[in-house]
Design brief:
The protein has 265 residues and is mainly alpha-helical. The chain folds into three domains: 40 residues, no CATH class; 104 residues; 91 residues. Strands 1-2 form a two-stranded antiparallel sheet.
Length: 265
């Protein structure tokens, strides 16, 4: 009986000793801590986020890995911060279209890739360090990025399919469209003038030569634009090119006819 009492007392003392010498170790992931020993995960991490400076919480990853993951997020997501929160990206993409609803394929691919890189960096950090304890704000950022990547990829595919994705940066493509406006501004007027000429009557060959050159310049710039589109250009672009080709061909035909038949005045 005495031996049993002594054994029971020894267990009680040992239990009490363990309770005193092994405090804590029950703080879960995302809970505040002071040192590694307080965490179930064994990692008390100093956060490096601007909003969470000087805050230490329990995480599943080591401090070294957290610092690496955090650095990747800051590096790969900084460009997205320039256009606002991630859910603004879809509207930013739509605003990038020109008046003809055409997009720079180079720009779209760039936006998709930096969104995907940021998504990968965030998912790696959150899942490696927070695991199933990712908070709602972190999850929302991941969901927004997934939507942004999907929206950009969809826009790339649709723009190519509709002949509205050009392989040039937006600035230089805008310069080309401005050149088109300048070169083609009198095309419709010149076409109407050509229709009023008769093959067997005298005509102003100097004016005919000028109209031919203007139509050629319009055709050349429109052809340059059409050739920039991935796979094919839109039906509107092709129709405008054919209109310039037809005007140039008709002006040249009439000019040659007047010259050959001595009908220039």
């Amino acid at each position: 009986m005495r031996r049993a009492t002594r054994a029971s007392l020894a267990v009680s003392v040992l239990s009490f000793t363990l309770t005193i010498t092994c405090p804590g170790q029950n703080n879960r992931a995302s809970e505040k801590c002071i040192n590694d020993g307080e965490c179930e995960t064994g990692n008390c991490i100093e956060l490096k986020d601007k909003k969470e400076q000087d805050k230490r919480i329990c995480l599943y990853c080591s401090q070294v890995n957290y610092d690496k993951f955090q650095s990747d997020v800051q590096t790969k997501c900084k460009h997205l911060d320039d256009i606002g929160r991630y859910f603004d990206l879809k509207s930013e993409l739509q605003r990038a279209a020109n008046r003809s609803n055409e997009f720079s394929l180079l720009w779209l691919v760039h936006m998709r890739d930096i969104s995907a890189d940021c998504l990968t960096a965030r998912v790696t950090r959150e899942h490696s360090c927070w695991n199933e304890h990712v908070d709602s704000e972190q999850q929302q950022q991941i969901d927004d990025l997934k939507q942004a990547v999907n929206a950009t990829q969809y826009l790339i595919q649709e723009s190519i399919r509709n002949g509205r994705a050009y392989n040039l940066d937006r600035e230089h493509f805008t310069q080309l469209t401005e050149a088109e406006e300048k070169s083609c501004k009198d095309l419709d007027k010149n076409v109407a003038w050509l229709k009023g000429l008769k093959d067997d009557e005298q005509g102003d060959c100097t004016e005919l030569s000028s109209v031919t050159n203007e139509a050629r310049g319009c055709r050349e710039v429109r052809n340059s634009i059409v050739n920039l589109f991935q796979d094919h250009a839109s039906s509107e672009r092709m129709e405008s090119l054919r209109a310039a080709e037809t005007a140039e061909s008709e002006a040249k035909r009439i000019l040659d006819l007047k010259n050959n038949n001595h009908l220039c005045k």
